[in-house]
Amino acid sequence: MSLRLAAVDLGASSGRVMLGRVGADVLELTEVHRFWNGPVRVHDTLHWDVLGLYRETLAGLRSIGAVDGIGIDSWAVDYGLLDGEGRLLGNPVHYRDARTDGVMERVLRTVPAEDLYSVTGLQQLPFNTLYQVVAEPLLAQAKSLLMIPDLLGYWLTGRPGAEATNASTTQLYDVRARRWSEDLARRVGLPPEVFPAIREPGDVIGPILPAVAEETGLDPATPVIAVGSHDTASSVVAVPATETDNFAYISSGTWSLVGLELPAPVLTAEARQANFTNEGGVDGRTRFLKNVMGLWILQECLRVWATDELTQVLKEAAAAPAFGALVDPDDSMFLAPGNMPARIDEFCDRTDQTKPASRGAVARCVLESLALAYRRTVRQAQEVTGRAVDVVHVIGGGSQNELLCQLTADACGLPVLAGPVEASALGNVLVQARALGAPLPDLTALRALVRATHPLRRYAPQGKLADWDAAESRVFGTR
Ligand code: LFR
Questions:
Q1: CATH value of 3-230 in 3.30.420.40, 3.50.50.60, 3.40.50.150, 3.40.50.2300
Q2: Residue whose CA is closest, atom 9 of ligand 1?
Q3: Which of 100, 334, 375, 453 is deepest in the core (most CB within 10 A)?
Q4: How far is CA 136 from CA 47, 92, 171, 284, 462, in A?
């Protein structure tokens, strides 16, 4: 017997509604509906079109047919505010918006970075929810704050709440006590009452509202189930690690989330100085990782070149000479949307490098720079935690990028196992299935099912590691 489950999986550049079939030895996904997502600039502010995302979610649910459950995951840190009647105040702002410029520095003057880290374990990123909320003009009118998947879940069921993995990305969540840090909220001037009760992945949120049942044609008893609602938490569930516990993962999409899965947070000074995050995982695991800027830079290049021919651009990159210009992809100059080829030129000017002269050379520069950043992060993670890494799992859309996977293996000097592609949707349906009683007791069983049903591609390291050592010292010096 298998379950039919709807995964609503919202990424920063596209959203999809997927039908999952999950049973003891079955795990299949079919895409039912895919739609564009991205920043919408109105005057000076970058927004998400959250009502559009809800409309497309409903459209997907309308065409999926009867399901046993619905789970929602999305990118992290962003939120909607509700008034006392549960009405949305304003339009959620995109984390790449400039309203947080300088806010982190301001907050750190009142709350030292050490205090923030010892409570939340979170990496410093200028767009963490904490810094957004401090810059939020609508906060005074707000009665509650819902993270994006919780907001959609609320619209579907009428039940507000805060799913733990996504709450853990706010920098307002106590990572050890596993609840909101009211103390921290007060210290930065936020009313702790706006944060709803925490729910865990696997909790049933509630049945869909009658109006939603009518609009979608679904049975009104269909439950919405909390999953690892942070997309990265869901994708880490689907890391098909069955050979060794010594694995690192790269959840590769718009961002590359590079790190380890740990049984508990690591809140040492070394972890803080290396800017590792301790985000909450499914089953109480810790996602000890760093955000690397990811394929965002290449996506923005394609936008500027007015092409969607990624395959062709990657061919050109494969043919371009190795180790030309290299950039630090995590430089803050690459965070906001814009002309990335021009910013790469600017980086080259600043660092006395020859600018890449063709589209292929630009793409090669981005991919080699990412591979270098991955290598650096995997090595730092091992140093900071004292754990060894024998294999790197690349999951998510970027696992299809053969050149990037090979460069990652070469740079890290480690085998790369690539796949599955739809990791977050798989993690989403797996956690739902378990909540509904499927015989999949723990993460080991969930991962074994992914491994048994999804082919992986293995990349062995090639070339000379010494070339990457030289490249690394060229970009990062001795830092
Ligand atoms: C990936 C992701 C990252 C998070 C970034 C912004 O989709 O969720 O984990 O840091 O988006 O929310």
A1: 3.30.420.40
A2: 232
A3: 375
A4: 13, 10, 15, 31, 49
What is the per-residue pLDDT across 109-122, written as a single tens digit (0 to 9) for each?
999 999 999 999 99
pLDDT tens readout for residues 131-145: 999 999 999 999 999
What was the pLDDT predicted at 479? Answer: 47
Q: Are 281 and 165 in contact (CB under 8 A)?
A: yes
Rounded to two decimals, the pTM is 0.97
Q: What is the pLDDT of residues 347-367, one digit of tens each?
A: 999 999 999 999 999 999 999
pLDDT value of position 391: 98
Q: Do residues 246 and 201 make contact, with C-beta atoms less than 8 angstroms apart?
A: no
Put the strands of the sheet holding 79-82 in their side by side order.
88-89, 79-82, 144-147
**Ligand 1 atom with the shortest distance to the CA of 255:** 1
Residue 420 has pLDDT above 80, yes or no: yes
- Specify the residue with its C-alpha closest to ligand 1, atom 7: 75
Closest residue by CA, ligand 1 atom 2: 75
Residues of the chain with CATH 3.30.420.40: 3-230, 239-419+441-479
pLDDT surpassing 70 at residue 13: yes
Taking the C-alpha atoms of residue 107 and residue 119, their distance in angstroms, rounded to an integer, is 15
Indicate the class that CATH gives domain 239-419+441-479. Answer: alpha beta
ipTM of the complex model:
0.98
Q: Is the CB of 75 under 6 A from ligand 1?
A: yes
User: Which of 323, 320, 362 shows the shortest CA–CA distance to 343?
Assistant: 362
